[in-house]
């Protein structure tokens, strides 16, 4: 399980969130997913947990992009206040 944690966490040094915090978080998830595969003798729960996590992350990116698209780009583009 330690190898899974390292293999899952190391690429996240440049992932999102990046740096040591991202690698530790991803490493913990890698350990948790490996543990679920061992304990359940299957990959369904590991796959499901990863799928739900990816849906949440993708949704956050979409909402952030939509929010940025709705913001005025300059003061000149902003609607007048009065």
UniProtKB/TrEMBL annotation:
<keyword id="KW-0472">Membrane</keyword>
<protein>
    <recommendedName>
        <fullName>CAAX prenyl protease 2/Lysostaphin resistance protein A-like domain-containing protein</fullName>
    </recommendedName>
</protein>
<dbReference type="Pfam" id="PF02517">
    <property type="entry name" value="Rce1-like"/>
</dbReference>
<dbReference type="GO" id="GO:0080120">
    <property type="term" value="P:CAAX-box protein maturation"/>
</dbReference>
<feature type="domain" description="CAAX prenyl protease 2/Lysostaphin resistance protein A-like">
    <location>
        <begin position="1"/>
        <end position="55"/>
    </location>
</feature>
<feature type="transmembrane region" description="Helical">
    <location>
        <begin position="44"/>
        <end position="66"/>
    </location>
</feature>
<dbReference type="InterPro" id="IPR003675">
    <property type="entry name" value="Rce1/LyrA-like_dom"/>
</dbReference>
<feature type="transmembrane region" description="Helical">
    <location>
        <begin position="20"/>
        <end position="38"/>
    </location>
</feature>
<dbReference type="GO" id="GO:0004175">
    <property type="term" value="F:endopeptidase activity"/>
</dbReference>
<keyword id="KW-1133">Transmembrane helix</keyword>
<keyword id="KW-0812">Transmembrane</keyword>
């Amino acid at each position: 399980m330690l190898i899974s944690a390292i293999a899952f966490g190391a690429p996240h040094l440049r992932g999102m969130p990046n740096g040591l915090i991202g690698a530790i978080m991803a490493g913990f998830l890698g350990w948790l997913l490996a543990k679920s595969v061992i304990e359940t003798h299957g990959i369904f729960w590991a796959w499901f947990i990863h799928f739900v996590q990816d849906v949440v992350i993708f949704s956050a990116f979409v909402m952030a992009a939509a929010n940025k698209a709705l913001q005025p780009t300059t003061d000149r583009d902003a609607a007048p206040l009065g």
